[in-house]
Amino acid sequence: MARCADCDRKVGGLFGRAGYTCDRCGCDICGNCVNREDGEDYCKRCWANKSGRGCFIATAAYGTPFSEEINVLRDWRDKSLITNNFGRLFVKTYYRFSPPIAQFIENKEGLKKAVRVVLNPYIKFLKNKGYNKRDKYTTK
Questions:
Q1: One domain for residues 24 and 73
Q2: Angstrom distance (rounded) from CA 91 to CA 46
Q3: Number of helices and strands (H, E) in the chain?
Q4: How many domains are contained in the chain?
Q5: In terms of domains, do 20 and 72 share one?
Q6: Residues 72 and 99 grouped into a single domain
Q7: Residues 6 or more apart from 61 whose CB is under 8 A from it?
Q8: What is the tens place of the pLDDT at every residue in 58-67?
Q9: Alpha-carbon torsion 17, 18, 20, 25, what sign?
Q10: Over the stretch 5-49, which tens digit does the pLDDT of each residue have?
Q11: What burial class does residue 98 get, using C-beta atoms within 10 Å of its C-beta: 0-12 exposed, 13-18 middle, 19+ buried?
Q12: In a shared domain, residues 77 and 132
């Protein structure tokens, strides 16, 4: 039986499936906790972080949720990660543990630079693979 990611209640019906699945991170959520907007369902964590769209550590490292690097990572998440069980588990785990890490590094230039050094080659690889849907996330 599935459990709601927000309130930990048992949820489900036939075959133990949850009533809703977060369209951002893929976690199971009950009808009492689901947030709906424009036909999409969100858990409380993703709803609260909708403006930043969840790339916590990268946003802290690059200084803005609207940088090209963040858009590449979001596009990869949306087109690849949340389309399969392993990817949804990865995203769910990342959303659970990354906010305090992001908060820790956001005012430490040396750590932000170290994160960028680690992320930049991977972002370049993803960009070469075609991930970078700018218009979806920018206000331009």
A1: no
A2: 11
A3: 5, 6
A4: 2
A5: no
A6: yes
A7: 105, 112, 115, 116, 119
A8: 988 998 877 8
A9: negative
A10: 767 777 765 554 457 777 767 777 777 777 776 667 777 666 655
A11: middle
A12: yes
